[in-house]
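Lecture 7, part 2: worked example. A protein chain together with 5-hydroxymethyl-3,4-dihydroxypiperidine.
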Amino acid sequence: MFPHRLPWSPNSDGHHEYLPLEWSPMAAASRFPDGFLWGAATSAYQIEGSPLADGSGASIWHRFVHSPGRTFQGQHADLACDHYRRWESDVDLMQALGLQAYRFSIAWGRVLPEGRGRVNGKGLDFYKRLIDRLLERSITPNVTLYHWDLPAALDDRGGWLNPDIEHWFTEYAQVMFHAFGDRVPMWATLNEPWVAVDGGYLHGVNAPGHANLFEAPIAAHHLMLSHASAVRAYRAGGWPHQIGLVVNLEPKDPASDSPEDLAATARAHTYFNEQYLDPVFFGRHPEGLARIYGAGWPDFAASEVARIQEKIDFLGINYYTRALTKDDPTRPPVRDARVVPEGATVMTTGWELYPKGLEEVLVWVKERYGDTPLYITENGGAYEDPEAPVDGRIDDPLRVLTYRGNLRACRDAIARGVDLRGFFAWSFMDNFEWSSGFSKRFGLVHVDYATQQRTIKASGEFYRDVIRTNGEALG
Ligand code: IFM
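Predicted complex, written out as structure tokens:
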């Protein structure tokens, strides 16, 4: 009756296991498997700054943040972390943290200012220098092609609502493969298509700022067709490495046993966790998704949805929290609301710290979709860090707690047979958190935005020890 209830469900006594600090002695003794990849992640628009430099074309995010009332205090990312100019010292810092891999995204409009056609050599050169330097330092580049910054010129043609975008995205992907396919070992097509659509087309809180029930499933469909088409182009080009997809997942647990809350939890799980993965692994949409969208659901031809099913080399999972879910008829179309249990540790984003959910998510993916190699491509937390270093230090004990708990959960999942191959902290450094501006800090490295001074936080030192000991430092 409730097929996905098992991994997310409460224990028989109705309570959820919450063990962020407990640790079984057997697991404590173990390190991560040899070759486990330790990295950190960022995205272009959140750190680079200089969005129009050297012939770059504006993105939908550049437009969005410069429209009134869209972001916290009207903040924008024209400077952000100034990484476009400070990338060399940032790579030095990555080395100081002991990172083995760095996940970043390409700003599509830096490379193709109109989104298609003419290639901007200066934009491509920025990424060439970065990739070469990472490789010189033995830091594996992990490149995401789309982390939400669609070229504005393509949005003018309908953006993700225009079916031609499948070709535009594939053309862009091919430019990138030809430039770096020989030396970038990990490619991801899209980051979190769920957020791109839910925030950008359904609720309008992210760029391009549309709130339209009818547009959302169409944008989602075109994103996923674009993903699959880029994977096919990668295979056709004979590139020798790996290509995958990055999704955000979270367990949906019912807030009570009422039929309303159970039904809301089932809807939320379908909408959040299955919507984008079922087409990739099964070539069809999940049961129940059409009912959630109701009148907004287009009659997709089965053959069109089947085109999304293209074998990926790895799945990237971004995990931050779980959602204790209750029914809320005022929030269409899913009609769910998130509850935070009393006593929980809560991030400044309002998210509950819930490490056990990470293990649950990993096991659920294995059980539902089989044994694709998995990476945690983002994980971390935003907390109230000190505004400035005190005696040269930034103490962030809650972020240390977060990484300790979540990494132990990863180790538990591996012990349960999950093929988890690496972990990327979000984020390498504090950065521009989209419509929340600079009000949320996620970094292992603190950024003073007035001076652009970087300081490795206590969590960065902790993570460096975890990497150095391949997990033993977790205890
Ligand atoms: O900052 C974002 C990132 O861009 C995508 N994943 C979630 C992060 C924290 O909200």
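The radius of gyration is 21 Å. The chain has one domain: 21-474. Keep this in mind for problem set question 3.
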